[in-house]
């Protein structure tokens, strides 16, 4: 399926991937209709600042703007905001919105992202003290809840939870992180880096409770009582739940697209329907390193996949798929991770870790370089990236 | 008329690399490409990163935070996530000194 110059494009999901699809179509000279539909009330924005600058007080409306109203207008991109798409009719090639409005398409992009895994406990009284963090509205709600609070419990020692923990500590709150597993960020970091990060949080005064589960949450007018797996209780003012995300695949599923814990796409974002592309957190894509297909829950992936899918729809030559990569900012640490930590069997120090910097190369069981972690050391990460890209090119030649 | 400000010794601007300086309270990143010196505002247009911490390759500087590319000669955005140009300043060499027109 290649988009004709006067074709009609509909993009469902006005986030990181959706905005880059729209921008790229215009950058590459597409002159047909582009309609970007988003459930949130805002023009597309980047989420990374939500747990960092926005939570610290930066202006939410302008921080991380991806496609402002003015830019959208100048580029001829129609944004339908506060609008949810409820169905795709693949035979008729049209989508239906919750408002009842239908929009025809020649090519459809699904960039629906993901949503926080819900709390396993029923929400009830005091639910206003329990927070998730995905959207700008979530961040504003959390920000006002933390303003004046003295203590925060973070359920889940993953990246979002730790970023919020760091921000809350910097604002002087007492912070406890409760993680069921034996180490922090077990899915996204190798063990040495988890340990380094745990030290960083302890040095900053966070109480880390590892290997600890939450059996119950009870809130009242004054606070929240968490009952832990060992029977102990913890009383706090506010709770952030960061226990992972689920790909937003409901629409794709009802439309009968091929799914596998994510919308299955090829390296250029094609789904099982030639008229439908998908990009971002909602997808499962081939691994550029040749390992099993993966879901990437990262800013860089949503951007790159959005650009790649738009180019593919226009029939342009594919650009080289980049190696998986993400960053996280906690306190003064900029942590960058390249490759596949899940394949790492050993880590080698590139430089001896200090309180502020560290970098490790990750090797798989066969001794092949599969990535790197660098703390405040972007050059170290870039060197490994170049090395891995060279090896990849040599293998493909 | 351009106001020229002395910012560095020519020999301090590394070949195919970058040097961060401060001129009149403004952070400037100086680059040398094929012997010619270029100056950009030393702040990425996407976020809080100094371009003088970045990496020079193929006439572009790669931002150390999110890998966006900026054209060193013009300050133009060359790859996502950068969408806005970075301000570029004229330069001239007087003797062994670099001057920037602010
Ligand atoms: C707080 C926070 C901090 C983060 N920090 C980092 C970081 O430091 N580094 C990093 O690499 N990554 C980070 N990420 C991850 C990164 O932001 C995501 O990977 C990225 O936003 C994914 O982009 P996406 O376009 O796939 O999804 P999203 O940006 O989530 O966009 C999807 C959009 O689609 C909308 N939508 C869904 N279904 C429908 C429908 N049926 N109709 C209409 N609209 C719909 C949603 O409302 C949403 O607005 C962070 C994420 C969060 C939440
Ligand atoms: S701060 Fe430079 S690319 Fe983001």
From TrEMBL, chain B:
Its cofactor is [2Fe-2S] cluster. Pfam families: Rieske. InterPro entries: Rieske_2Fe-2S, Rieske_2Fe-2S_sf. SUPFAM superfamilies: ISP domain. Coiled coil: none annotated. Keywords: 2Fe-2S, Iron, Iron-sulfur, Metal-binding. Residues 4-100 form the Rieske domain. GO terms for molecular function: 2 iron, 2 sulfur cluster binding; metal ion binding. Belongs to the bacterial ring-hydroxylating dioxygenase ferredoxin component family. This is Non-heme iron oxygenase ferredoxin subunit. It comes from Antarcticimicrobium sediminis.
């Amino acid at each position: 399926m290649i988009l004709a110059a006067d074709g009609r494009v509909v993009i469902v999901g006005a986030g990181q991937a959706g905005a880059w699809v729209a921008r790229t179509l215009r950058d590459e000279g597409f002159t047909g209709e582009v309609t970007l539909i988003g459930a949130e009330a805002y023009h597309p924005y980047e989420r990374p600042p939500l747990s960092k600058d926005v939570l610290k007080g930066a202006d939410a409306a302008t921080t991380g703007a991806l496609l402002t109203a003015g830019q959208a207008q100048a580029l001829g991109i129609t944004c339908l905001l506060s609008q949810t798409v409820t169905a795709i009719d693949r035979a008729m090639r049209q989508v239906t919105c919750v408002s009842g409005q239908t929009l025809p398409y020649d090519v459809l992009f699904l960039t629906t992202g993901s949503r926080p895994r819900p709390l396993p406990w029923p929400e009830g009284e005091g639910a206003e003290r329990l927070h998730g963090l995905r959207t700008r509205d979530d961040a504003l709600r959390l920000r006002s809840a933390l303003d004046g609070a003295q203590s925060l419990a973070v359920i889940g020692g993953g990246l979002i939870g730790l970023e919020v923990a760091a921000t809350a500590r910097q604002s002087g709150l007492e912070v406890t992180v409760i993680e069921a597993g034996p180490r922090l960020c077990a899915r996204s970091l190798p063990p040495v880096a988890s340990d380094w990060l745990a030290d960083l949080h302890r040095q900053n005064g966070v109480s880390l409770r590892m290997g600890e589960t939450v059996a119950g949450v009870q809130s009242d007018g004054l606070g929240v009582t968490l009952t832990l797996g060992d029977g102990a209780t913890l009383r706090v003012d506010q709770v952030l739940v960061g226990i992972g995300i689920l790909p937003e695949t409901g629409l794709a599923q009802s439309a009968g697209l091929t799914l596998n814990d994510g919308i299955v796409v090829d390296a250029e974002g094609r789904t099982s329907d030639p008229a439908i592309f998908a990009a971002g957190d909602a997808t499962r894509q081939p691994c550029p390193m040749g390992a099993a297909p993966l879901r990437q829950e990262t800013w860089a992936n949503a951007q790159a996949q959005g650009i790649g899918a738009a180019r593919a729809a226009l029939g342009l030559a594919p650009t080289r798929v980049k190696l998986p990569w993400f960053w996280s900012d906690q306190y003064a640490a900029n942590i960058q991770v390249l490759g596949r930590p899940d394949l790492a069997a050993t880590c080698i120090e590139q430089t001896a870790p200090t309180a502020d910097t560290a970098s490790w190369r990750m090797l798989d069981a066969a001794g092949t370089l599969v990535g790197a972690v660098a703390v405040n050391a972007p050059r170290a990460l870039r060197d490994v990236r170049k090395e891995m890209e060279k090896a990849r090119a040599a293998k493909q030649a | 008329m351009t106001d020229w400000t002395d910012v560095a010794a020519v020999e301090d601007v590394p070949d195919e690399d970058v040097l961060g300086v401060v001129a009149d309270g403004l952070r400037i990143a100086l680059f040398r490409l094929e012997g010619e010196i270029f100056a950009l505002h030393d702040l990425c247009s996407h976020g809080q990163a100094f371009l003088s911490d970045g990496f020079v390759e193929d006439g572009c500087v790669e931002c150390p935070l999110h890998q966006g590319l900026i054209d060193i000669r013009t300050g133009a955005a060359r790859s996502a996530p950068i969408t806005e140009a970075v301000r570029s300043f004229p330069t001239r060499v007087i003797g062994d000194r670099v001057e920037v027109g602010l």
